[in-house]
Structure formats: structure tokens, C-alpha cells
Specification:
Elements (H helix, E strand, L loop, with lengths): L6 H9 L3 H5 L6 E3 L2 E4 L11 E4 L4 E4 L5 E2 L1 H9 L3 H11 L19 H22 L4 H9 L4 H6 L3 E3 L5 H7 L5 H6 L3 E3 L5 E3 L4 E7 L5 E8 L9 E3 L12 E2 L1 H11 L2 E4 L2 H9 L5 E4 L6 H8 L4 E5 L4 H13 L6 E5 L7 H8 L1 H10 L1 E2 L1 H12 L5 H15 L5 H15 L3 H33 L11 H15 L1 H9 L7 H13 L5 H9 L3 H11 L9 H12 L1 H20 L2 H20 L1
Parallel strand pairs: 13-14, 13-15, 15-16
Antiparallel strand pairs: 1-2, 2-3, 3-4, 4-5, 6-9, 7-8, 9-10, 10-11, 12-14, 16-17
Helix pairs in contact: 1-23, 3-4, 11-14, 13-16, 14-15, 16-17, 17-18, 20-21, 20-22, 20-25, 22-24, 26-27
Keywords: DNA replication, DNA-binding, DNA-directed RNA polymerase, Magnesium, Metal-binding, Nucleotidyltransferase, Primosome, Transcription, Transferase, Zinc, Zinc-finger
Catalytic activity: ssDNA + n NTP = ssDNA/pppN(pN)n-1 hybrid + (n-1) diphosphate
EC number: 2.7.7.101
Length: 605
């Protein structure tokens, strides 16, 4: 059993970690003054409001309010406990981790989600063992090896084999006392007409599906028998930990490569991703459905601005590529197409032509969407026939008119003109007429377009408005954290903050002691609850001068100490309005005297 991680090790990890390096694995960060900004990974937004300060080693989202240090980020992003987050950050920084500090959790007495994650992890290990170490898995291993999937790739992707046994996995978890309710929730089992559970996956090569953090959340099982009447692939049903609209196969492995290559390659099948990975093309992913969802696109937008589609080169693959291009109209991205020659799928092409040739195709063979679409149109028309020529020209102009770059327009107009043996001037005249026609239609559609654009923008930076008292509390707490002498002065005068959230941080600060560097600041934050971490990060992100003045501090303290008086003034003003409404002159006179006395007290303070 793991021992408690000592403070010395936490401090070592903190001092050797740069929050920008860690968070860059999840968010595409760009320098903005002294800080870094990007799209928040915790909610959808179009305008970056997620800010990371390298100087203070904090992050804060000005939209959703989340904030904290590197451990808080990992805890929220990957659903880890604090000790697990420390270990994860240490691994990222290649900091040696003593065995006694490992935080592996071998029991199932946690939330359902954590139990399901553990079950999927152990299922993958079991299937991998059967594939590699048992006679039962030998034919599945032979199948994979025939497809050039070696032990290294099997290990990287934790591939396995589910034997043709209806209750092997079921018995495995029953022996571990997993409840019937959890077994049914897991998605690992189906049930017969009598309501009895049996293993969902049988006689299939098992491909684990991971979430962005690398946790196994589902499986895709591929049949070995080509002549079988059952589906070629069987995927896990949706569960508490798996939603196919959110997950992208191989994203957890591909994130670094996507950032390094500044693009992501979208493949059609899992085997294509595996083959590409083995060939050195490691920035590939595959969706769990026919097209990318808004959630998947948002996830990718945090990593890159370029999506390249690499589907099969046969007719169905070309049709799928065309459909994808017509559906991928998200303005956050530019798009490209990698067309696989000889009507092969990427896996076939790699096995027949070799890794080097495929890598060259990926690097140098990216077409623009318009180039692919023009080639797609050519496949559907007989350009020796005048009617088809005119149809091809009309279709081509409908695509070219969407372009905004004059250079692109001129290039593709020239290409079509040469192919159709007509002048560029005549095509440009047709384009002008098409633009005028579109402009006439635009006013009727304008409101819908504007509404759609506004609806797509989900980010509004919070404009938190604080009254004079709370502004004083925020500023005073900021300075108190940074300057120990202020803390000593407040403590000596038994000072109290008005709002409970600021008072809690203040009390934690008194118990913690002085904060002299980023490591101690991070340690202080680790002891706060979730709301306290968010608030502390928000305070530390405030734009403040390097030094305070004594008059400034006195003003803050005075405002806070007089908060009760100001509250009473506000109450009396409300009572005065009500007394005036009912015409109670006597009460108005009494309230006015009270108001004068209170204002004298405020002035004297």
C-alpha cells in the first residue's frame, strides 16, 4: 500500500515544474504580455479567457472562474486525487518517484465513475495478457502480426484479445465482489432474455479507447473471421465515463505530436491510426462516428488550427472525405486533404509502399479543400460531353466563389480555364455575376447568419462587479498574502473580513505562516478547498502595483470595519423611501436623525 507523499517530495516537484510546460500539453497557449492565454479546457469558448501566469505559476479562467496551481489543473482535468496529481506532474517532468509514493488504488470502494475506470483498466490488462501470454490468444496475435502490428505497438495501445467465452470477464469481476449494479452499468456485459449477464466482447481483437487524459473508458472489438455474419467492429455502449461524441481515438497519445506538427490528421479507422503511428506519423486520431462533433472540434481547437483528412482512397472513402469537408465549416480551423493513391486505405498503403513513402505523402501531399473538391467533381462528369462540361464549370464556380484570397481565386480560375479550354476573363465574368446574385440573397439571410454567429460564441468574460467593501477586501487580502507585516498587523488587531470566503482564506493564511516564494504559495493553495483555490487564483491574477501604500491599506481597513455602518445606512435609506411612499412624516423625521448620526460616525472613522 502506498505511503503518504511527504511534503519534501511535493516541494521538489513544485520547484522543478513550470506550469506553462504542463498546461501546454492540454491547451494551445499563446504569449500575451507577461502571461499566456488559450481556450479554456473546462468549457466551450471562442475567445480565449484562460490565462496562465508563469511568474506566479497559477492559471485562471476569467469566464468560468476556475483557477489554481498545476496540481489543481491536473485534478480537475483528469479527475485525479491530489496525491495522484503530484505523481502525474512528477512523471511529466521525469522526476524520479520512489515506489513507496505510488498512489495506485487497488480497491473499488469509490464513486461509480472511479470504479468503472478501474474496471476498464483491469479488463485491458486481462485481454492483453490473453493475447500475448496464452495459447487462446495465439491466432489473434498471428492476425495482428500479419498486419505488421508488432509487440511494441501492441504495448503502446494496450491491444488485447477477448476469447470466445461467455463469462470469463464476468467471473473475473464477480471474484472481486463487484456489485451487480456496477456490472450492468459498465457496458462490458450484455444480457440474455432471462436477464442473465454475459461478456459483451467475444472472439475479438480488443482496441482500448482512452479519454484525453489517457484513461481507458471503452473498447472497440474487431472480428477475426472475415466470413462472420456479425458486425466487423463492436464498440462499447455509452456509460458514465464514455460518450462517443466527446472521445477521439488516440488523442491522449497524439496531443504532443499534434502541437509539434501544428496539425491533426483525421483517419477513418483505428487500424489506420495504428499503422500511421508505427510509420512515425503520430499526430493521427479517429472519431467514434461518421463526423466530428462540436465537442470534439472544441477539444482539437485547444491543440491546433489545422485538420487534415486522410480517409480511404477508394470510392466510398472519397465520398466520405467530400461529406466531411462539407460538414467541417468551423472557422477556427483550416483544412487539408491527404489523398491515398491506388484506391488503398492508409493501412494498406503503408504495408505495400512502406512507412517512408507514407510519411512523405503526409508531409508533402496535402491538398487544399478546393483542390480536392474540384478533383471530386471531375470524377462525376464526362468532360468530353458539353452538358457535363457546363455542369462541372457551374459546380466549380460555386466553390471558387466562396474563396476570399485573390491569389487562390486566380489560381483555381486559371486551372479550370485551362482544363475547359476557355478564357480566364469569361470565367471571372461568371464569378462576378454569381457574387452579385449571392449579394442579392444576403439581406434576407443576414439576421439568421448573425444569430448563428452569435450563438456559436459561447464565451463571455465575466464582468464581476464588486461593491466598495468587497473591492477593499480583495485588495487587502492580496497585499496581506504578499507582505507578512500586514498579516501580523491585522492579526494583532483581531481583524475580520466581512465575507466568509475571504475570511476563510485569511484564517488559512494565519495558520500557514509566511509565503516567500512560488513553492510556498503552491503549498498554501494545496490546503484550500476547491472554491478557495479558485478565489486565490483570481486574486493573484489581479493587476496590482509592486508595492502598497500605508494610506491605501488604512482605507481598505476603514471601509471593511465600517461595513456594518454602511449596511445600516442602506437599510435606513430603504425605510425612508417606504415612509415617504405612505406619507409617514413622523417616521421620516426619526429615520433622518438616525441617518445623520450614522454619517457622523462614518466621517469620524
Amino acid at each position: 500500500m502506498a505511503t503518504r507523499i511527504p511534503q519534501e517530495f511535493i516541494d521538489e516537484v513544485t520547484s522543478k515544474t513550470n506550469i506553462v510546460d504542463v498546461l501546454s500539453k492540454y491547451v494551445q497557449l499563446k504569449k500575451a504580455g507577461k502571461n499566456f492565454v488559450g481556450l479554456c479546457p473546462f468549457h466551450e469558448e471562442r475567445t480565449p479567457s484562460f490565462t496562465v501566469t508563469e511568474e506566479k505559476q497559477f492559471f485562471h479562467c476569467f469566464s468560468c472562474g476556475r483557477g489554481g496551481n498545476v496540481y489543481k489543473f491536473i485534478m480537475e482535468m483528469e479527475s485525479k486525487t491530489f496525491p495522484e496529481a503530484v505523481i502525474e506532474v512528477a512523471k511529466m517532468g521525469n522526476i524520479p518517484i520512489p515506489d513507496s509514493y505510488q498512489t495506485e488504488n487497488t480497491n473499488y470502494q469509490n464513486s461509480d465513475s472511479r470504479t468503472l475506470l478501474k474496471m476498464y483498466e483491469e479488463t485491458a490488462k486481462l485481454y492483453n495478457h490473453i493475447l500475448l501470454k496464452t495459447e487462446n490468444g495465439s491466432h489473434a496475435l498471428k492476425y495482428l502480426n500479419q498486419r505488421d502490428i508488432d509487440d511494441g505497438l501492441i504495448s503502446t495501445f494496450s491491444l488485447g484479445y477477448a476469447p470466445n467465452n461467455s463469462d470469463l470477464l464476468l467471473q473475473f469481476f464477480k471474484d472481486r465482489s463487484i456489485s451487480e449494479n456496477i456490472l450492468r452499468k459498465s457496458g462490458l456485459f450484455a444480457e440474455n432474455q432471462e436477464g442473465e449477464l454475459f461478456d459483451r466482447f467475444r472472439d475479438r481483437v480488443m482496441v482500448p479507447i482512452t479519454d484525453e487524459a489517457g484513461n481507458i473508458v471503452a473498447f472497440s472489438g474487431r472480428i477475426l473471421d472475415k466470413n462472420a455474419s456479425t458486425a466487423k467492429y463492436m464498440n462499447s455502449p455509452e456509460t458514465e465515463i464514455f460518450s462517443k461524441s466527446k472521445v477521439l481515438f488516440n488523442l491522449s497519445n497524439a496531443k504532443k505530436s499534434i502541437r509539434d506538427n501544428q496539425n491533426v490528421i483525421l483517419f477513418e479507422g483505428f487500424m489506420d491510426v495504428l499503422s500511421a503511428y508505427k510509420s512515425g506519423v503520430t499526430n493521427g486520431v479517429a472519431s467514434m462516428g461518421t463526423s466530428l462533433t462540436d465537442q470534439q472540434l472544441y477539444t482539437l481547437s485547444r491543440l491546433t488550427n489545422q485538420i487534415n483528412i486522410c480517409y480511404d482512397g477508394d470510392d466510398p472513402g472519397v465520398e466520405a472525405t467530400y461529406r466531411a469537408l462539407t460538414q467541417l465549416n468551423d472557422e477556427r480551423f483550416t483544412y487539408g486533404v491527404i489523398s491515398v493513391p491506388d484506391q488503398k486505405d492508409p493501412d494498406e498503403y503503408i504495408r505495400s509502399e512502406g512507412s517512408e513513402k507514407f510519411s512523405g505523402l503526409v508531409k508533402n501531399g496535402v491538398q487544399t479543400p478546393i483542390s480536392f473538391i474540384l478533383n471530386y467533381f471531375r470524377r462525376h462528369y464526362n468532360l468530353n460531353n458539353e452538358h457535363d462540361q457546363l455542369e462541372f464549370l457551374n459546380q466549380s464556380l460555386q466553390e471558387i466563389v466562396k474563396l476570399s484570397s485573390p491569389v487562390e481565386i486566380d489560381m483555381y480560375v486559371g486551372r479550370v480555364a485551362d482544363e475547359m479550354n476557355v478564357s480566364k476573363d469569361s470565367i471571372n465574368k461568371e464569378l462576378d455575376a454569381l457574387r452579385r446574385s449571392n449579394a442579392i440573397k444576403q439581406p434576407a439571410e443576414y439576421k439568421d447568419i448573425q444569430r448563428t454567429a452569435l450563438g456559436g460564441s459561447t464565451t463571455t468574460v465575466r464582468s464581476s462587479k464588486f461593491d466598495r467593501i468587497e473591492k477593499s477586501e480583495r485588495c487587502l487580502l492580496y497585499w496581506t498574502i504578499s507582505f507578512p507585516e500586514l498579516k501580523a498587523n491585522l492579526k494583532g488587531n483581531n481583524f475580520q473580513f466581512v465575507h466568509e470566503n475571504y475570511q476563510r482564506i485569511y484564517e488559512s493564511l494565519l495558520a500557514f505562516g509566511d509565503i516567500n516564494d512560488n513553492t510556498e504559495m503552491s503549498d498554501f493553495m494545496n490546503g484550500l478547498d476547491n472554491d478557495g483555490k479558485n478565489l486565490l487564483a483570481e486574486l493573484e491574477m489581479m493587476q496590482m502595483p509592486d508595492e502598497y501604500t500605508e494610506q491605501e491599506i488604512d482605507d481598505y481597513i476603514s471601509n471593511i470595519n465600517n461595513s456594518d455602518l454602511e449596511s445600516r445606512v442602506s437599510d435606513i435609506n430603504q425605510q425612508l423611501k417606504q415612509a415617504a411612499m405612505v406619507g409617514d412624516n413622523k417616521l421620516q423625521l426619526e429615520l433622518t436623525k438616525q441617518l445623520i448620526d450614522l454619517r457622523k460616525l462614518l466621517t469620524s472613522n
